[in-house]
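Protocol step 4 of 5: obtain the predicted structure for the target chain.
Materials: sequence only (see below). No template structures provided, no constraints applied. The aim of this step is simply to have a reference model before the mutagenesis design in step 5. Sequence pasted as it appears in the construct record:
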Amino acid sequence: MINRKLFVAVAAVAALGAAAGAAVAQTASQKALVDQAKAAGSVGEQADGYLGVRTSVNADTQAAVSATNAGRRQAYARSAADAGTSADVAGARMFETQLLPRISSGQWYKNAAGQWVQR
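Step 4 output (structure tokens):
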């Protein structure tokens, strides 16, 4: 069981890393919008491995969040297929192993209980 969890985490990392352009299916300007929104506290990572909108954002930022999540959805599906698990599990493992540790001080994330927490 531990080996399977490790494999899922490694596969999720590999899928997200290998498909960095597609997994973060966004333009440079969309990435900048997401980064600015994270710094402002209006967008944050979620325990399911996707970005979430914490407060109101403009249409361009919403489109950037949607593009990022679409890419992540594809990466998690590939990772899950390789690991023989679900995309939900792959996304959660990515959050635990890669996304949560990278959240900067002052930024927000949504924990598994559905609560927004500031780091």
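Step 4 remarks: Confidence is low (pLDDT under 50) at residues 15-23. The first strand starts at residue 43 and ends at 46.
Proceed to step 5.
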